[in-house]
Amino acid sequence: MRAASAKREVPHKAAHAGGILIVQTRCDSSQDDKLRPPVSDAALGRFRLPPRLVRYSARNDRGRPSLDDALHQAVAYLKEQHGTVVIGVGRAKVKRQIEALRDADAKLPPAERQHRTISCETFVEFCRDAGLDQPEHVLSYLHNAGTVFYRQGLFDNRIIVDQGWALEAIYAVLHREKCVKKLQRQHGRFTPSDLAEWIWDEAGYKEKEQQHFISMMESCGVCFRYRAGVPDKNIEPEYIAPDLLPDRAATDTDQKWDADQPIETAAFDYDLLPSFLTRAIISRVGSVAGLAADYWRGGLYVFEADTGSRALITQHMNEASWGGRIVVQTQRGRAGELLARLTELVEDEQQRFGITATTTQEPSASAAERLVETLAPNTPDRPAPLKFSQEAAMQREFFVSYAWGDTTPEGRARETVVDQLCVAAEQRGITIVRDKMALAVGDRISKFMDRIGRGDRVFIVLSQKYLESPYCMYELAAVWRNCRQDDEEFLKRIRVFTLDDAKVWTPMDRALCAVYWRQKSGELEAIVKEHGPDVLGGKDFEKYRLMKEFAHRIGDILETVTDILQPRKFEDLVKYGLDDLPNKSPSPPEEKPLPGDEPDGAS
Q1: What pLDDT digit, counting tens, does each position of 359-393 carry?
Q2: H runs (alpha helix) in 250-362
Q3: Any idea of the CA torsion for 285, 290, 293, 298, to the nearest 10 degrees?
Q4: How many contiguous H segments (helices) and E segments (strands) does the chain have?
C-alpha cells in the first residue's frame, strides 16, 4: 500500500486542491483487504478532500471497476477545478508527432516495430521542425507528463517512446510463479541469461532489448550490478534485486561487526516506511560496493577504505503498524565522517521519493564537525566519492583444497602430499586450514567452502577425483569468482600441485572435463525444468546453479591453471607456495621427518 506524501512542494500544492487515491495492492481476495491506509489521521487531514481508498489485485484484476471509476472521477475533478490544461503550439506538435510514431508502430507485429525508442538527435530534429530551440526543456516536460521516458545514460541515451513495451517486460520479472520464486531461490541474484531463460526469450524480446530492460531496472533501483561481467571471456554481469534477498542470518557479518567497539549512530523513524526506500538505499550503495558488501533483505554491511570505517545499515519494521526505522551505524577509523556521508545518502533518497522521517536521531556534533574538517577551504564543496572495499583481514588465512575421504592408493597419496605441506608450513609458523580438520559435526560444508574461496592463499592439489567432485569444483570456482575472473589475480591467490592422474594438460582433457560437468548440470536442469526448482533444497539449488556456472567456465579456469610452470616435485611446491610468505616461526624449526619420510620402525 502506498500513500502520497505531502512533503514535495510542487505536487503538494496540487494534491491539497485535488483528489488523492490510495491504492492497496495485492488484494487477491477479501481477506487481503485492509480497513484503512497505514497513515495517521493528521496526514490524511491535510487534504481538502478525503483520500479515496481503492483495493486492487494485479494478479487476478480484482477491483478493476473500482480503480477505473476512481481514476475517471479524479480526472474529472481536476478538469472541473483547473479547466483544460494547455501547452504551447510547438510542444503540442512534438508531443503529437511522438504519439503518432508510437501509435503507428503499435499496429505492426512486435518483431517489426522500429520506434519503441528514438535517438536524442531525432528528438532535436522534431523540436527544430516545431520551432523550439531548447529541446532539453521539452524533453523534461514530456518525461514528466508521461509521454516519453528518458534518463541520461540509460538505453544508450535513447528516449523510450513505447513505455508499455518496457514496463511490461520489467513487470514480468515480478511474476510470482515464473520469476520471483526462482529469484528467491537464488537469494535475489540473477544474470541476464536467467531472465532470458525464464521470461524474456519466450516473450520474443531481442538481446539488445533485454539489455535495455535491465538498464531501466538499475536506474529505478529495482536491482544493481554487484559483479561486473567480462565480455572478452563471455562472462555475464550478475545483479541483485534487494527486495528478493534472504533475511539476515548469522553470517560472517556478525564476526566483522564488533559490538564492543564504540559505535556512531543515526536513526530515521517513519509513520509509513515503504520498502522501496530501503531498496533504493541498498541499490545505491550496492552499485558502488558490488562484491565488497554483504547484503540481506532490509540491510547491508560494508567497509569504506578512505575513512577506514565499517558501516551497518538496517531496517526495523514496526510489527504493530506500517511504520519503521532505518538505522545507520559506523565504527572504527573516521567513523563519524562516514556516518555523516551515509546519513546524507539516506536523506537524498528520502527527498527523491518525497518521504520525511517523523523523528531523526542525527549524528553527533563531533561526527558532523569531522566531516566539515575534511573539506578544506580550497577543495570542492563535496568530498570524494565513497570507496567501498573488502576490509583487510586481521590475520591472513591459508587453505588447502583437495579431494579426500577415500583409502585407495591414490587417496593415500593425496593425503601424504597435504600432510607434508601442512607440516612444512607449521615449521615456518604458518597454519594451513584443511576442511577435514576444521569442520566439526554439524558444521555447514558450504559455509566453509565459501571461506576457502576468500582465502589469501589456496593450495590446490589437483587430481582426477578433484576434477569430478562438486565440492572441490565449488571451492575452485569460489576462488575464481572472488578474483573477479581475473587471470592474474587468480594466479596470485592459488598455488597448484597437479598429481599424475589429473587429466588437464591437453585441450582434449580440458574439453572432456567441461563436457562431464555440462552433462551433470544438464541432467539436473532437465529435472528442474520438468518438476520446478522446488524439487531441490535451497543449498542444492545453489550448487546446481554453481554447477551450471563452472560447467561453462571450467575450460577457462583449467587453461589458466595449466598455462603456468607448475612444481613437479614436493620440494618445488614448498618453495613455490611458502617461500614468499613471512616466516612466523619464533626460532629455527626443530628437525623432524615429514610424514612418509620416517625411517623403518619410526612411529
Answers
A1: 777 666 554 455 444 544 444 556 688 899 878 76
A2: 252-256, 275-289, 335-353
A3: 50
A4: 23, 18
How far is Cα 507 from Cα 380, in angstroms, rounded to an integer?
Answer: 55
* Structural domain boundaries in the chain: 21-82, 89-239, 245-363+388-392, 398-579
> Is 139 in contact with 125 (CB distance < 8 Å)?
no
Architecture of domain 245-363+388-392 in this structure? 2-Layer Sandwich (3.30)
User: Which triple of cell numbers denotes residue 27?
Assistant: 488484494
Buried b (16+ CB within 10 A) or exposed e, 567-598: beeeeebbebbbeeeeeeeeeeeeeeebeeee
Provide the 3-class DSSP secondary structure of residue 249: coil
Q: Is residue 36 helix, strand or coil?
A: coil
Give the model confidence (pLDDT) of 547-582 as tens digits: 887 787 888 889 888 888 788 888 888 888 888 876
Domains 245-363+388-392 and 398-579 alike in fold: no
The grid coordinates of residue 18 equal 485535488
Q: Is 146 exposed, middle or buried (0-12, 13-18, 19+ CB in 10 A)?
A: exposed
CA-to-CA distance for 522 and 198, rounded, in angstroms? 16
Contacts of 351 by beta carbon, 8 Å cutoff, 6+ apart: none
- Residue for grid cell 616466516: 583
The neighbour count for residue 160, using CB atoms within 10 Å, is 22
> Which architecture, in CATH terms, is 398-579?
3-Layer(aba) Sandwich (3.40)
Instruction: Check whether 287 has a pLDDT greater than 70.
Output: yes
**DSSP per position, 223-244:** -EEEE--BGGGTBPPEEE-GGG
